């Protein structure tokens, strides 16, 4: 069976990358180290008895941020929650906690500038935090990721602690630890190391809270209760590991699908087998970095399924994750892949309920 062509298979990783991480650091390196590649976090003796409500996101998407704010506002005002866990470094969350008590947004602006080059460096993210400050002012942020932006936000927070005679405090120690985690992660580009540290850091912060319940916002690659790490598929992801410790006290919901709940940007017309169809256009996807390809474009042919479902099928599949919009069974798609020399390949797919290794996928058909 011809599974998925190399280009298409690789693009699955590109398309879901927004749900993996919102963080980057200019000092990142790319070498590997087995000594810093532990298999998983050993189960801890769980003392905390509160509940954990995790929400997986695609980073920086306005409608997802709006949903997350509404969820947090409900937990905050109706359930009395105060602790919000986020996919940020320890020192970034602590700096945000200081900002929450300030009478201006100077700290937020500095942190926001440090996020430049990441998916969360957009006005929607900034507005999300401002709404929390305005309407949920007793919120306490807990950052449990490795030390992203360690050479900007991290150093500035260390300077703040030193200036306020907190050089020997637990906050100083945990900031140094987070910075070291960030350095290790970026030096080795080690996603398994990061997944395990995110789990360890989450447990450390949660265990401090006794019977307090918390909400957590993370990329959906970290929040599946039955999922493995995205990069290597070799260890349980963060939420999966947390479930080993906290069992039924952990709940997880994936909101990343909302990023694909979009309307077409225009309607074109495409002729297939002599019949003209309305073709809803869903945009262009950059293919820079893939040999000989520049970009590809997506159309959905409206009311075409019954006309094409008996055409010859090709043993070639394209998972739903590759598409910029939501997919339903009984739809037909046209994909133009433009090469760097300007030539264009046009392929046709239909969603006929196929599963490729357990993944919902469209199947190519012949339109000649």
Task: Characterize the structure shown.
Strands 6, 7, 8, 9, 10, 11, 12 and 13 form an eight-stranded antiparallel sheet that branches. The chain has a five-stranded parallel sheet with strand order 3-2-4-1-5, with helices on both faces. With 368 residues, the chain is of the alpha/beta class. The longest helix is centred in the middle third of the chain and has 19 residues, at 170-188. α2 (62-78) runs parallel beside α5 and α3 (90-100) packs antiparallel against α4 (106-114). It is elongated. 34% of the residues lie in helices and 24% in strands. It has two domains: 9-258, Rossmann fold; 262-365, no CATH class. The two termini are 22 Å apart. Mean pLDDT is 90; it is low at 1-37.
Topology record:
Layout: H1 6-16, E1 52-57, H2 62-78, E2 83-89, H3 90-100, H4 106-114, H5 123-135, E3 140-145, H6 150-163, H7 170-188, H8 191-207, E4 214-219, H9 238-246, E5 250-254, E6 266-272, E7 275-286, E8 293-301, H10 305-308, E9 313-319, E10 332-339, E11 344-350, E12 355-356, E13 359-365
Parallel strand pairs: 1-4, 1-5, 2-3, 2-4
Antiparallel strand pairs: 6-7, 7-8, 8-10, 9-13, 10-11, 11-13, 12-13
Helix pairs in contact: 2-5, 3-4, 3-6, 6-7, 8-9
């Amino acid at each position: 069976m011809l599974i998925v062509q190399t280009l298409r298979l690789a693009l699955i990783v590109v398309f879901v990358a927004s749900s993996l991480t919102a963080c980057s650091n200019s000092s990142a390196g790319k070498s590997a180290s087995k000594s810093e590649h532990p298999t998983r976090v050993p189960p801890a003796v769980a003392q905390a008895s509160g509940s954990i409500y995790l929400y997986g996101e695609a980073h920086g998407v306005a409608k997802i941020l709006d949903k997350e704010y509404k969820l947090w506002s409900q937990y905050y005002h109706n359930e009395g929650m105060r602790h919000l866990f986020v996919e940020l470094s320890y020192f970034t969350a602590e700096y945000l906690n200081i900002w929450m008590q300030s009478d201006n947004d100077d700290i937020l602006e500095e942190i926001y500038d440090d996020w430049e080059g990441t998916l969360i460096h957009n006005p929607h993210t900034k507005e999300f935090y401002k709404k929390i400050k305005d309407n949920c002012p007793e919120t306490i942020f807990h950052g449990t990721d490795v030390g992203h932006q360690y050479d900007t936000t991290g150093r500035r927070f260390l300077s703040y602690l030193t200036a306020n005679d907190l050089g020997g405090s637990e906050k100083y120690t945990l900031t140094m630890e987070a910075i070291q985690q960030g350095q290790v992660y970026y030096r080795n580009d080690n996603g398994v190391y990061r997944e395990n540290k995110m789990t360890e850091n989450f447990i450390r912060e949660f265990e401090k809270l006794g019977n307090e319940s918390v909400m957590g916002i993370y990329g959906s690659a970290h929040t599946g209760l039955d999922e493995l790490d995205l990069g290597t598929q070799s260890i349980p992801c963060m939420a999966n590991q947390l479930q080993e410790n906290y069992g039924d006290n952990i709940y997880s919901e994936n909101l990343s699908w909302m990023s694909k709940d979009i309307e077409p940007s225009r309607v074109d017309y495409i002729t297939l087998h002599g019949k003209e169809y309305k073709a809803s256009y869903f945009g262009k996807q950059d293919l820079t970095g893939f040999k000989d390809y520049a970009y590809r474009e997506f159309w959905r042919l409206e009311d075409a399924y019954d006309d094409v479902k008996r055409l010859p099928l090709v043993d070639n599949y394209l998972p739903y994750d590759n598409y910029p919009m939501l997919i339903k069974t009984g739809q037909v798609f046209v994909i133009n892949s433009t090469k760097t020399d300007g030539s264009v390949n046009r392929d046709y797919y239909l969603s006929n309920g196929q599963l490729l290794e357990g993944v919902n996928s469209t199947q190519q058909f012949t339109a000649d």
